[in-house]
Amino acid sequence: MNKVFTLAVLTIVLAALAAGCAGGAQPTLAPTNAPAPQPTTGAPSQPTVGAPAQPTQAPNESSALPKWIKWHDPAAEADELFNKANGTGPYKLVKWTPGESVEFVRNDDYWLKQPAWEGGPSGPAQIAHAIIKEIDEWGTRFAAFQAGDGDYVTVNPEFWPQVDAISSKDCDAATGECKPFTGTAKIDRYRGLAQTSATDVLMNANINTAGGNNYIGSGALDGNGIPPDFFNDVHVHKAFNYCFDWDTYIKDVWQGEAEQRNGAVINPMLGYNPQGPHYSLDLDKCAEEFKASTWKSADGKSLWDTGFYMQLTFNSGNTSRQIIDEIIKTNVEKVNPNFKIEVYALPWPVFLKERTAQKFPVYTIGWGEDYHDPHNWVVPYLASYGTYGSGVPKDLQPQMDEMIAKAAAETDPKKREQLYFDIQKFTYDNAIHIWLAQGLTRRYYQDWVTGIYYNPSYSDQWFYQYSKKPDAKNPDTFIYLNFGDAESLDPNWSYESFGGGVIQNIYDPLVWFKKDSITEFVPWLAEKWDISPDGKTYTFTIRKGVKFHEGQELKASDIAYTLQRGLLQDRTDGPQNLYMQPLFGVPSIKDLAAKEAGLNETPANIQDIPAEGLIAACKDVQNAIKADDTNNTVTMTLNRPFAPWINLMAGYWSVGMSKEWVIAQGGWDGTCD
After folding, report:
1. How many whole angstroms separate alpha carbon 494 and alpha carbon 575?
2. Count of structural domains, the chain
3. DSSP letter string, 555-574
4. Euclidean distance between the first and final Cα of the chain, in Å?
């Protein structure tokens, strides 16, 4: 997702998820401007960002195009549910103040009457209120946690020793058993927690310059910038890999509790190759690769003799990513003083917009799986339709897409494993990304918090699992100290971990993870489900008596509408390609409409697709996901068997929203006209 962790994330995504699909047309990109170059390293005072991209406008009345395209691919702030929420979940939204906090209040009419697993929560949440406080600066966040003004705090790995020093208990998340630790504060440490996420450095082979782009300076190879296709040169890719210091990164950021990655697939998982080749720090080879580059300046000078300038960015408060950028800057500038890199911090929402617009030349981003399958790892990083697919050089992309499709279609596990080994070797040979490290994580709670267990597939904190001891500070409020912010509160639009964490507390999905398992699921809004013998039809029986926070009763048609709305909205780099491939065999609604219109290629602009194709695509969506309110069922018909489909139904993109309420907010009217 992107679990961007983006955060988001995550990304589960049986790539279907992602985040977590087969080469569609390039999306229309937001006309943003990068911050102007600054003479010293540090965040620019105010990044100059152009107006956010507007949603595709509805055709005028004389147009034959259907009006549903009015709601297709909106910018975050232009979406009617950007800052609104009306779910069925254990908490209601009170207020979201971007850049400051998100406030929740308990849903006293919550529908869950019996625990879904032994010892699990049920009934109204034990804690009446919850607050997520955004505190980007670590020292301030740490001081608040020390003072007991937070129940849980996000701690980047480089700061673990600081919190370890004051923690008085060392706990096992699986058993709940705690042993005395070295500190004296009433803080419990949970250590050695496995992750289904990773952070990597991506080099953008297709940098967007629309509206200007100061991240690449002059935009030319003249010593003051780089050209937008700078990273189409394999030698440049290899040089950046050889200039990265994994030992320092793992030691200083992960405190040694991580292993170097060698490709997209995580360990352990089918397709992970423990013997796969990987790069190591070698400044001599870094220099050799830069010298071998075929880039020339306008006057014929080599890249090595001309030099370059670019900016690297990280999201504010993410000191781990700042360290990564500084490692790259230090070593690249060390091999040649003609190479200049500046490092800047950007607010998380700005960072996401610029990344989505493909403005960054190089950036560090996280991926959290949407579902546990290698497809959900290779698609977001490497497919042309993947969330981060812009990192693959254009001449290699067709071959990469073909390799991904072949691996996804293979049913023999041994053969499939080898196909993912081949993908790993291909990415190494072409140095497509800088694969960083996969680490274990830690969590720190005040010792008055109970109900603690760890599920790496949760987007973020699920407040419903927690309770607090009577002697706790602020016993009726769970306070989560974090950095970063949500990009949107729309479940169909959001695809990053901060927003996902907010959404999973307000809304409910069809199924949910069984406690700490990432592969076992329990009925949630769906009380049961059936799968056809051919594995292509899923019928979910929707639970009766569930009410939305604003009083409407949940119906099967609400579930169908929510999923249909998301597929038609299908915002750029959003979660909908997780569903599009299994349902229709194409990565986007535009591709489906173009196919229905008989076009050989998908236009960049949805208005350039004939009306008959757009109407047919909308009807395809309605036929693929049907509701029967009489029997309270939702039927989903896939175009091929897709084993992770149930996994997708546990994501925050598979929740129920009130059709009546969404339409009242200005949302899609439910028609294909």
Report:
1. 7
2. 1
3. -HHHHHHHHHHHHHH--TT-
4. 32
